[in-house]
Structure formats: C-alpha cells, structure tokens
Amino acid sequence: MFVLIFLPLMMQISENLKNILHSLPEKVKLIAVSKNHSVSEISEAYQAGQKVFGENKVQELMEKVDKLPSDIEWHLIGHLQTNKVKYIAPVVNWIHSVDSFKLLKTINNEALKHNRHIDCLIQMYIASEETKFGLSLPEAKELLLNPETSTFTNIRIRGLMGMASFTDDKNQVRNEFASLRNYFNELKQGFFPNNPLFSEISMGMSDDYPIAIEQGSTMVRIGTAIFGQRVY
Ligand SMILES: *Cc1c(COP(=O)(O)O)cnc(C)c1O
Q1: pLDDT band at 150 (very low <50, low <70, confident <90, very high)
Q2: Count of beta carbons in the 10 Å neighbourhood of residue 168
Q3: How far apart are CA 106 and CA 122, in angstroms?
C-alpha cells in the first residue's frame, strides 16, 4: 500500500525538481518554496540534491529547521514583523522581504547578537494589487540614503525582490518584472556601483518564472511546481 500510493508521489518531487533545474539557466538560483509542505517532502527534495528552501512564515520555518539537515540554506520570503526577527536570526541565511529601515536595523542587530551575517533583499512593490507588500523606488532610495544603513555590519544588501500581480495577462506580468529589473539597475548604479554583492533580482514563481527569467531574474522562488498544490 505504502509503495503503491506514496512512492510515486515522492518520486514526483525529485522528478519535478530535475525538470525545473533543467529549464533554468545556470546562473539562476532555485529556491524551493516548501511552505505548507511537510518535513518528509522537504527531505525528498533534499535527497534529490536541493539544498536551498524558502518559507514564508517564521513559526513554520523554525519548526522545520531543527528536523532537517543543518547544511540547508534557508530563505525567509514572506512578510516579516520586526518582533519576530529574533527567532530566525540564528538560522536564516537570506531574508527576501525587507520593506522598512526599522526591519533592516533589527535584522542587523539580531544577526550581530549571533555573530552572523544575513543576506537581505529589499522587497519592491511592482504589482497592481493593493495587498502586496513592498517599497516604491523613492522609498527604497530613502532607506539606502539613510546614513545609518551603511553602518550595518551584519547584513548584506544583496538586491531586490518582487512579486507580480496574480493575472493571466502575461504582458502585465512582463512589464512588472521589467520594472523590477529597471529599479535594480537604477539602485545598482546609484548606490552599489562598485559592490559586486548587490547582484540579485528575486522574481518568478511557479506560474510566471519563465517570464521572470526572460526579464533578468537571478533567483526564482518555486513551490507548487515542485511540491504540488498546497493544502491549507
Ligand atoms: C508561496 C510563495 C512563492 C511560491 O509560489 P508558487 O506559486 O507555489 O510557486 C514564491 N514567493 C513567495 C513570496 C511566496 O509566498
């Protein structure tokens, strides 16, 4: 029974992973978004060679970290409240959802306490939906112009992250990703011209990652196309 029902399901994860990795350009990093999927499903992906996982909730991330191998690179990709940074600071490698100076400062302070460095992406608002988090270009500039930002020793600002609108209109999605790439180029030129660390554009999910790659994505965050539909 177990073999008949579960084995094909589990093999599906490694099969999906293999197919997606084949379709990605070599320089694009795959973040396997494991939110709402079990530790055993993540283990299956890990055994297939995937070492980079993304979660969108602090509590769920922390519950999983202890049960999985310590060489996993964990990315927090969902909205992050300042008062929860302390929980993830000892374990998280990347935070994609920096959307305020206060949050960035807190991440730096908490990383400092653990003698760690955390790679951060500034989340930009590119969608036409009211519900999406993120900064406008002027707000991102304000954050980077803050004199305190350059004194943060335990964070590295690695680039930008954005989410396109949930729409079937591929042109709209393409335009939104293009605007994120343009924001990246402008901020790179203005603030990080000689800093090779500012190099990442995190954009693209299961339904839109081919368009994101066409528009210059360097990190895709893919859940459903690897693990199947999430059951809430
Ligand atoms: C859930 C999530 C993803 C992955 O979405 P899929 O459509 O399942 O690939 C990517 N980015 C963020 C921020 C998410 O919350």
Answers
A1: very high
A2: 7
A3: 14
How many angstroms separate the CA atoms of 25 and 5, rounded? 34
Mutational test site, ligand 1, from 77, 160, 202, max ligand atoms within 8 Å of CB: 77
Going by pLDDT thresholds of 50, 70 and 90, the confidence category of residue 232 is confident
Q: What are 20-52's pLDDT values in tens digits?
A: 999 999 999 999 999 999 999 999 999 999 999
Q: What is the pTM of this model?
A: 0.95
pLDDT classification of 134: cutoffs 50, 70, 90: very high
Instruction: Fill in the DSSP letter of residue 135.
Output: B
Using a 6 Å CB cutoff, which residues line ligand 1?
33, 35, 56, 77-78, 163, 205-207, 221-225
Pocket-testing residue among 17, 29, 31, 56, ligand 1, by greatest number of atoms within 8 A of Cβ: 56
- Domains of the chain (ranges; CATH) run 10-227 (3.20.20.10)
Using alpha carbons, select from 67, 15, 75, 16 the residue that is nearest to residue 51. 75
Task: Name the helix (H) or strand (E) containing 155.
Answer: strand 155-162
